[in-house]
Amino acid sequence: MELAPLILKKNEERRLRQGHVWVFSNEVDVARTPLTAFAPGQPVKLQAHDGKVLGSAYVNPHSLICARLVSRDPEQVLDRSLLVHRLNIALSLRRRMFAQPYYRLVYGESDGLPGLVVDRFDDVLVAQINTAGMEALKTEVVAALEKAVKPRVILLRNDSPARALEGLDSYVESALGEAPESVRVEENGARFEAPLLSGQKTGWYYDHRDNRARMQRYVRAARVLDVFSYIGAWGMAAAVAGAGQVTCIDASARALDQVQRNAALNDAADRVETIEGDAFEALKALRAERAQFDVVIVDPPAFIKRKKDAKEGIQAYRRLNQAALQLLGKDGILVSASCSYHLQRDVFLDLLHQSARHLDRQLQILEQGHQGPDHPVHPAIAETDYIKCFIGRAVIM
Questions:
Q1: Domain range 191-395, CATH architecture
Q2: From CA 61, how far away is CA 35, in angstroms rounded?
Q3: Structure letter (DSSP) for residue 386
Q4: Cross-strand partners of 298
Q5: Among residues 205, 207, 278, 384, which is most buried (max CB within 10 A)?
Q6: Cα separation of 362 and 197, whole Å?
């Protein structure tokens, strides 16, 4: 298959030669290969300004990231065969790391499959296709997943906001079998029912699995507060690890109903309570009641979705963590997490430190965490490294 060339400006190939896989629209020599000549998702042969071939890619003329490298072998295009091959490579890592089939199976560029995310819930797969190039291969993606994994159900949750940046429509559909309303998840000794069709993203967040395991060693017989609990991933992990009492805060009544069902699944219904409402207001009310906890967990949604939101987002993280620290009893443990890529780890640590100092406490950092091995980091793509988690002891010196 002869691919049309996409030629870069002079010296713009250096980042690709160093291992990156994205091409930005301002790096293309549009005089020689105008982007308007390409259809969204079209496979291309990527070339340096001097004509040297860099590999095969797919293109989207309407996106800031206008091309994504598929292979450094120009003869290797993204087809069903390559999809199966890379799925098998991804699957071998997960099988090595996890005894049970509950994990993120595909993490986009980090698994050599740009624009594709797949979460596995035993024999149910939930996939997100986020680029025009991968959307053009939707039939092949489904067939490759069937061959590599042999699932009973494949649900396409193609309703991510990222699709709008690629000019793609938003939809949810079953590509194989009939998707159930919820699926069973097993993690860190706890059992859950996660909503597939009505839940957030794919219905579950595997990225903090290892951080939740780290948290478990601090909660035996403890009073635990789980803020932004969603369906109780952190709270239930605490309950099965022996927490004496768990309180989950979330703004969604539906999510909190699921917390109660998950508590029952784990024989912890008598130790789990919920508070519905805005997290900041709920923390303020608990402070007014002079409530105290041994462990407070704060895992909010991304407060910094774009770089320009950094200043406002950092203030939100500071207010949240200060409110959490105010509810900690003597020698309490703060578990603070962020999924904002634009919040640098050192900035996050500093705001935690300053929040504690504002309350005349010293924060001792006991453990640091990031995303688990089913979310492998691509060393050349900083955006693939987004999860931060600190476990700290707040003491009065």
A1: 3-Layer(aba) Sandwich (3.40)
A2: 5
A3: -
A4: 227, 336
A5: 205
A6: 44
Q: According to the 3-state scheme, what is the secondary structure of 195-248?
A: ECCCCCCCCCCHHHHHHHHHHHCCCCCCEEEEECCCCCHHHHHHHHCCCCEEEE
Mean pLDDT, residues 302-331: 94
Residue (of 18, 28, 60, 24) closest to 41 by Cα position: 60
Smallest CA-to-CA distance from 134 within 93, 99, 106, 92 is with 106
Determine the pLDDT at residue 199: 76
Per DSSP, helices labelled H in 98-157 are: 132-135, 138-149
Residues contacting 73, CB < 8 A, separation 6+: 55, 56
For residue 259, the SS3 value is helix
Q: Kindly provide the b/e burial profile for residues 324-352, where b requires at least 16 CB atoms within 10 angstroms of the residue's own CB.
A: bbbbbeeebbbbbbbbbbbbeeeebbebb
- Please answer whether residues 67 and 6 qualify as being in contact, where contact means their C-beta atoms are separated by less than 8 angstroms: yes
Structure confidence at residue 271 (pLDDT): 98
Residues taking part in catalysis: 339
Give kind and range of the element (H or E) at residue 354: helix 345-358
| DSSP string computed for 143-193 | HHHHHHH--SEEEEEE--THHHHTT---EEEEEES---SEEEEEETTEEEE
Domain 4-71: CATH architecture, name and number where available? Roll (2.30)
CATH number of the 80-180 domain: 3.30.750.80
Domain boundaries in the chain? 4-71, 80-180, 191-395
- Pairing state between β 245-250 and 272-276: parallel
360-385: pLDDT as tens digits: 999 999 999 999 999 999 999 999 99
| CA 109/CA 68 separation, integer angstroms | 9
Confidence at residue 1, expressed as pLDDT on a 0 to 100 scale: 67
- The three-class DSSP label of residue 50 is coil
User: Across-strand partners of 102?
Assistant: 121
* Token couple for 54: 């860099």
Rounded average pLDDT over 344-370: 96
Pair 277, 251: CB distance under 8 Å: yes
Number of Cβ within 10 Å of residue 117's Cβ equals 23
d(CA 156, CA 143): 13
